[in-house]
Amino acid sequence: MAMNFHSDNGLFESAFTVLRIYNAYSTINRSTLQHTQIPEELIATHTFPSLTVGDLNIHYHLSNPTRLLSYSELNVSSQYYELAADRLYSLLNTPGVFTRFPFDSTTRPAVLDLSFANAPLAPYIGPWSPPSPQLVLTILLSPLNSVPQS
User: Is residue 1 part of a domain?
Assistant: First the structure.
């Protein structure tokens, strides 16, 4: 799902009049063994600010450097991360900070909820906030002159 936000006066005190936010939930299609959200749809090429967020159900060493990954996990997740790098998207997550916390003690925490900003949006991104006890991720968008430096 994508939502466009428009402002005739510009967003973030800039000349950009559109911000697109993709919110996705991806699972594995059991009949094709492919993820239900394909990278090209979520990590689109835009000249205006774009943010991709969601539970992509993928594991990769950039977002979770301490996790041991299987070949199949790397094969699936690398498609998203490599396309994001090729299209100059930035991963907003802090590496190793979990975004999924299980309700039982037999399942380990994971980094499944991911946030990517494209190059036009990246300068306006403030500090990324890991989940609070209420499991809310916070991304601060500000005018360039007021973006807090981390």
Answer: no
